[in-house]
Amino acid sequence: MTRIPAATTSSRSPTLRKRLDNLALRWQARLDSESADRFVPWGSALVLFVLLGALALGRARSLDGGADLASYLQGAWLINQGDPPLVTITGTHLLADQAGFVFYPLAWIARWVPAVPLLLLVQAAALEERMGDAVPLVDDLEAVTRRTETAMHDYLATPPTA
């Protein structure tokens, strides 16, 4: 009876699952450091801003901006002309629904910068900031879930107007 040497049976290569587990553990260890706590939130915020900005600009480029974008563009034009922002698209004052004191500086900036990209990128930055609030709280999964659900509800609450 011949025996197989012990060295040949133990020299088998690790399985794919074991390699993937080791890879996942290494990445988890890299992300569980102080440097990752400093850079991952900023990196994810930048990626989210670029994604939301690209989607908004793509939608505007396809001429599917909707009545909301048109009313804010008309409001910015009226403010730049020195008129009150009484928008003819909706028939109301632009700032009647909400306190839009921040819109006046944006309208003044729109004198020198194209208004459509300005408004859409400011919107993307505001959405990113709202959704990015959840990033530092990754240890508390329930808080992340609540903040993400609230942010998505805020984004989806207004039905699209076409």
Write a compact overview of the structure shown:
This protein is an all-alpha fold and 162 residues long.
Question: How would you sum up this structure, described in words?
Answer:
Helix 3 packs antiparallel against helix 6, helix 4 crosses helix 5 and helix 4 crosses helix 6. The mean pLDDT is 77. 65% of the residues lie in helices and 2% in strands. A hairpin with a 4-residue loop joins strand 1 and strand 2. It has a two-stranded antiparallel ribbon. The longest helix has 28 residues. It has one domain. The protein is mainly α.
How is this fold's topology laid out?
Layout: H1 6-10, H2 16-31, H3 34-61, H4 66-80, E1 86-87, E2 92-93, H5 103-109, H6 115-132, H7 141-156
Number of helices: 7
> Which ranges are low-confidence, i.e. pLDDT below 50, for 5 or more consecutive residues?
none
The fraction of residues assigned to DSSP E strands is: under 5%
Task: Report the structural category.
Answer: mainly alpha
The largest sheet, given as strand count, sense and whether it forms a barrel, is: 2 strands, antiparallel
Q: Alpha-carbon distance between the termini?
A: 83 Å
Keywords summarizing the entry:
single chain, about 160 residues, mainly alpha, two-stranded antiparallel sheet, about 65% helix, elongated
